């Protein structure tokens, strides 16, 4: 079977996902964490086997969202496809023809079934791929397993955030531009918002490679898209992205296309050790933000924060901050000549809050909603229960009374076992030694012990 055929087979094969039972025991009279959760493990046909390493097919966890009007139908999203870090900073893609896709899942009677897949395509029907984009090149070099460089493509797309509309269409954010693309219900591109034509804030193009618009959601009334960057921007007067605690949130009025920007501060006492992987709407002004490290359980750092845009300062091109002006090619809003990233520098959360306050900027308010890592580690201190490193999708059910969390399994591969081509893949393993795969964790917030929330 060709690599292309294997990829197509994997995204068109129905999957059955069986729920592991939740336990209702208690610990010293306290509510049990196990009673609050239900685990679903995906069983999707592999994309293929390369050199004895299975490339897992359950890769729909980059984002996860509930179908409007439903309680049991969800949509998951792949990223650009299987890829690993190679020597000298290159990325290695074992299946260059992989087409990113949306997967529709039905959760019912203790099982979740992958009902259909929706490959993402250009308006003319040409399938998208995971190669670097000609329109928003990140500067990355991608090679195949033989070490051959793969050129940038007009159809390159790295999807990360998913918003599901009532008419059956989808909005998807990516890491390359970053772009936000509107897709029809069958996956054809309808339109694209871009920082290169002004339909998205121009300064977003200063994203760190592979850290673009990681999360996207739509308010329940269907009027506003809300996206969030994975990390800080590389502003002209600021430190490197990895040292910046200020992360941009962008709102887009779907009817008028008017945008606004707000600042979310990563939670840290020192330099940032976490990044953002998802934003999910609770209502028209409150959202959940998934902030996480990149470590496996036990005792990792993965938390959901409730944020509120009310009272936060718009730092976009329509900002009214004193002594400010908007410079699209100079880093966005400049306050007394400095970008947001230049103002906060390398400061941690508390100091960055003070930095912004001193120039009249209020970041979004945030409070702990759920300590995901603490919850799952309390269930299994060895990291054997939902111990994944990348918690990336958060579907909101019943206004936040329940959340369904997905992981990005990286298709079960993690790096190379050699430094020269032809390359050999390494298996990505969980703490219990098994290959990483996609799972879903349903959490009933009413049953979560108080120590893991608010």
UniProtKB/TrEMBL annotation:
Coiled coil location: none
Keyword Signal: yes
KW Signal (keyword) present: yes
Signal sequence region: 1-24
Keyword entries, A-Z: Signal
Domain (Phytase-like): residue spans on this chain: 62-411
Residue span of region Disordered: 194-215
A matching Pfam family: Phytase-like
Superkingdom field: Bacteria
Protein name stated in the entry: Phytase-like domain-containing protein
Source species of the chain: Flexivirga oryzae
């Amino acid at each position: 079977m060709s690599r292309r055929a294997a990829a197509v087979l994997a995204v068109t094969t129905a999957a059955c996902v069986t729920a592991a039972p939740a336990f209702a025991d208690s610990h010293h009279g306290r509510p049990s964490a196990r009673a609050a959760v239900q685990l679903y493990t995906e069983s999707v046909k592999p994309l293929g086997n390369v050199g004895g390493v299975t490339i897992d097919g359950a890769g729909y966890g980059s984002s996860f969202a509930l179908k409007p009007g439903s309680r049991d139908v969800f949509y998951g999203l792949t990223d650009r496809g299987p890829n690993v870090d190679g020597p000298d900073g290159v990325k290695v893609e074992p299946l260059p023809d992989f087409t990113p896709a949306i997967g529709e899942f039905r959760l019912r009677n203790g099982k979740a079934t992958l009902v259909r897949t929706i490959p993402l395509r250009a308006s003319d029907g040409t399938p998208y791929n995971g190669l670097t984009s000609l329109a928003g090149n990140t500067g990355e070099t991608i090679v195949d397993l033989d070490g051959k460089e793969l050129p940038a493509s007009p159809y390159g797309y790295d999807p990360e955030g998913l918003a599901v509309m009532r008419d059956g269409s989808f909005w998807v954010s990516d890491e390359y531009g970053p772009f936000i693309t509107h897709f029809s219900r069958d996956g054809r591109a309808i339109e694209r918002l871009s920082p290169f034509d002004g339909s998205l804030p121009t300064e977003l193009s200063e994203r760190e490679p592979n850290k673009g618009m990681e999360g996207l959601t739509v308010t329940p009334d269907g009027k506003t898209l809300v996206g969030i960057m994975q990390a800080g921007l590389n502003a002209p007067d600021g430190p490197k992205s990895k040292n910046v605690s200020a992360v941009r949130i962008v709102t887009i009025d779907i009817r008028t296309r008017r945008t606004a920007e707000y600042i979310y501060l990563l939670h840290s006492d020192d330099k940032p050790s976490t990044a953002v992987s998802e934003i999910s709407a609770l209502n028209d002004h409150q959202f959940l933000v998934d902030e996480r490290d990149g470590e496996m359980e036990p005792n990792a750092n993965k938390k959901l924060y409730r944020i509120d845009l009310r009272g936060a300062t718009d730092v976009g091109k329509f900002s009214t901050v004193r002594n400010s002006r908007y410079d699209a090619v100079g880093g966005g809003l400049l306050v007394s000549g400095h970008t947001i990233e230049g103002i906060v520098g390398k400061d941690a959360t508390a100091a960055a809050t003070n930095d912004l306050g001193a120039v009249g900027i209020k970041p979004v308010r945030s409070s702990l909603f759920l300590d995901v890592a603490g919850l799952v580690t309390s269930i299994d201190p060895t990291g054997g229960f939902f111990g994944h490193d990348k918690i990336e999708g958060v579907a909101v059910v019943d206004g936040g009374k329940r959340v369904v969390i997905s992981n990005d399994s990286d298709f079960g591969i993690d790096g190379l076992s050699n430094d020269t081509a032809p390359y050999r893949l390494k298996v990505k393993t969980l703490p219990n030694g098994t290959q990483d795969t996609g799972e879903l964790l349903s959490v009933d917030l009413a049953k979560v012990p108080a120590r893991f929330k608010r």
